[in-house]
From TrEMBL:
It comes from the Archaea. This is Glycosyltransferase RgtA/B/C/D-like domain-containing protein. The chain crosses the membrane at residues 7-29, 35-56, 77-95, 101-118, 130-150, 209-228, 235-253, 288-314, 326-344, 385-402, 433-455, 467-484, 490-510. Keywords: Membrane, Transmembrane, Transmembrane helix.
Length: 630
């Protein structure tokens, strides 16, 4: 394995473009054109990364040369510009009902300013703190521009259940029993309820939840910096890793999606940080506490965490790492705490895992159906995958540059070339640690990036995409190193190209349909992630004024059932005959339907709804955005 690692650079520069070409040509030969289109966002970085590394990889010792070619600028210039821009963006948010493209453009400039501050500022004692401050503020701006700007952000819909449970705890003073499957992890709901009480009732429960989640994800930028600094001793590269972190759409979305699973993503960053630090007694205790926190906050997350740690341990063992971060201690602790908690407080998870494995082996596991929806609009989906393509490019560039260093300099000199002046790392554990983390990141790419995960979900019937929630820090770690290597090795031309890349990464990260379903640059045929005030008031009016069962789309039903206690069924769109036959009352979100299909049992476009069906019913409620037909 050690010899194979030494040859990774040479093998990868050939294998990556070859796999990319096969990945596009094979679907075309099989007549799967949509799949080939979707695969472009994977193929382009796989071809471009080796080409970039070969083009500028011969520059050696370029840090000093680059410093002479790229002028140093006082950090206050960038900071003042950043804060003026920030004030302007807040004004734009206040003056517009829906975030316009101008806002996304302004945020892209803010990302660019952070990149300039990190790479061109003169070295000062508190430079890292200054950089982290700007990155934290930028992350908070992007997250809160959605959750605190719109009436009710609901994401994929699960958030409404968690809001209902937190409300129940606040009103009754007892743990909620609204949904048995969620009774095993109510720590997040208790945290939200207590925080709402501390506000004196001034903040609604859902707003408290948004503030807590957004604040945690913004503050986690500091955790990412600590992780990066312990893996490779370079302040600029570590700050660039933080920039890549807040440019990853999945990170931004889960900062908005204020559910227990979101918090466990941040706890896992803290756990990995504890593992890569010195294995002292205090760190061992902290490891136990963090593993326990992940299990208690969201018991269904720990299998994915343990799987990643097991793969990490296997890679460290394979390359004969002298000091292993993912050792038998953390694996044993993770398995012990998980088994104990599951058996005593989360038996439903064990039952579900058994049922899933039995169904998978018997071949009766139903697919998620998501892959079909994605492939139905491949160009729109591929356009929204552009920020992931940027991130993948940086990850592969970082991976290739690191193994190029290993191949040409050897282990002793590889990290020394990256380290800042005066830092002796030749005997450090960081070389094998960064190598194993790089291999782990590349191994997780099919599980961490969307597209492949949707197809795996469909085939396995298991939510494979959950691995992406716990792989973000690895993507940021290696992607930040790739960005640093491009900056460090290139001259003025490469630097100017990086200005375009970072601003493009920032723009696409905040304007894609995963993080900006309010007004995406390219709209996918999926639902909007927030409900308007008109819709919320309409649901409350319908819930209070109608006692029977209502047929509606999935998001409407979740609100009516979980926040109103009403009876609602998702309209079955896959049957024969009239779409709304068999429903005494039908609720239509007409405002949403004008822009996007409604998600009944499957997505239904406005043109596919027979207006005569609704014309034969009485329109008993109408708010211009929501209508109830009796």
């Amino acid at each position: 394995m050690r010899r194979l690692v030494d040859r990774v650079y040479g093998l990868s520069t050939v294998a990556l473009p070859l796999v990319a070409v096969i990945g596009i040509v094979a679907p075309l030969v099989l007549g799967l054109t949509n799949l080939a289109i979707l695969g472009l966002y994977f193929a382009v970085p796989m071809i471009a990364a080796p080409a970039l590394v070969r083009a500028i990889g011969d520059e050696r010792g370029s840090s000093t040369a680059a410093g002479r070619r790229i002028p140093r600028v006082d950090w206050r210039v960038w900071s003042v510009t950043f804060h003026l821009l920030l004030a302007g963006l807040v004004v734009v948010l206040s003056a517009t009902a829906v975030r316009p493209l101008l806002f996304y453009a302004g945020v892209a400039v803010a990302y660019l300013l952070c990149f300039l501050l990190i790479t061109t500022s003169r070295p000062t004692r508190g430079r890292h703190a200054i950089g982290l401050y700007h990155l934290v503020v930028l992350a908070a701006l992007v997250i809160f521009s959605v959750t605190l700007n719109y009436d009710l952000f609901v994401g994929h819909g699960d958030l409404m259940t968690h809001i209902a449970m937190a409300r129940s705890i606040l009103e009754t003073g007892e743990l909620s029993s609204l949904l048995p499957e969620y009774e095993a992890f109510q720590l997040w709901h208790v945290y939200t309820a207590v925080s709402t009480q501390l506000s004196g009732g001034w903040l609604p429960v859902h707003t408290t939840m948004y503030l807590l989640s957004g604040g945690i994800f913004a503050a986690a930028v500091g955790l990412m910096y600590g992780l990066a600094r312990r893996v490779y001793p370079n302040e600029t590269a570590s700050l660039l890793s933080c920039l890549v972190l807040i440019s990853f759409p999945l990170y931004l979305f889960y900062g908005m999606y204020s559910i227990p699973r979101s918090v466990t993503s941040i706890l896992f960053i803290a756990l990995v940080l504890a593992l890569v630090d010195r294995p002292t007694g205090n760190m061992r205790i902290l490891t136990v506490l963090l593993v326990a926190a992940i299990v208690v906050y969201h018991p269904a997350s720990i299998p994915f965490v343990l799987a990643i740690l097991l793969l990490f341990a296997a890679l460290e063992f394979s390359i004969a790492s002298p000091i292993r971060a993912a050792d038998n201690y953390v694996l044993s602790v993770g398995v012990l705490i998980t088994a104990t908690y599951w058996l005593y407080n989360a038996q439903f998870i064990v039952e579900r895992l058994v049922d899933t494995m039995v169904a998978s082996f018997l071949g009766s596991t139903p697919g998620s159906g998501q892959s079909g929806d994605v492939l139905a609009a491949p160009w729109a989906q591929a356009a929204n995958f552009v920020p992931y393509a940027f991130a993948l490019l940086l990850v592969l560039v970082g991976f290739l540059f690191w193994h190029r260093r290993l191949a040409t300099s050897g282990e002793a000199d590889a990290m020394a070339d990256v380290a800042e002046p005066g830092v002796d790392v030749r005997s450090s554990r960081r070389v094998p640690l960064f190598t194993s983390l790089g291999l782990l990141t590349v191994a997780l790419i099919p599980l961490a990036f969307p597209g492949p995960t949707l197809l795996l979900d469909s085939l396995a019937g298991i939510n494979i995409s959950r691995f992406g929630h716990y792989s973000i820090m690895f993507v940021a770690l290696l992607g930040g190193f790739g960005l640093y290597e491009l900056f460090d090795r290139g001259g003025v031309a490469v630097f100017l190209a990086l200005l375009v890349l970072t601003s493009g990464l920032g723009f696409t990260a905040v304007s894609n349909d995963f993080t900006a379903s309010d007004n995406p640059v390219v709209e996918r045929p999926f639902y909007t992630f927030y409900l308007t005030d008109n819709e919320v008031q309409s649901f409350e009016a319908v819930g209070a004024g109608y006692d029977g069962e209502v047929g509606a789309d999935r998001l409407s039903c979740r609100y009516l059932e979980e926040l109103q206690g009403s009876s609602c069924s998702v309209v079955n769109a896959g049957g024969e005959g009239d779409l709304f036959a068999g429903y005494d009352a039908v609720l239509i979100r007409e405002g949403e339907l004008a822009d996007r299909p409604l998600q009944f049992s499957e997505y239904v476009e406005k043109e596919s709804i027979d207006e005569s069906e609704l014309a034969d019913r009485n329109r008993v409620y109408d708010s211009n955005e929501v209508a109830l037909y009796g």
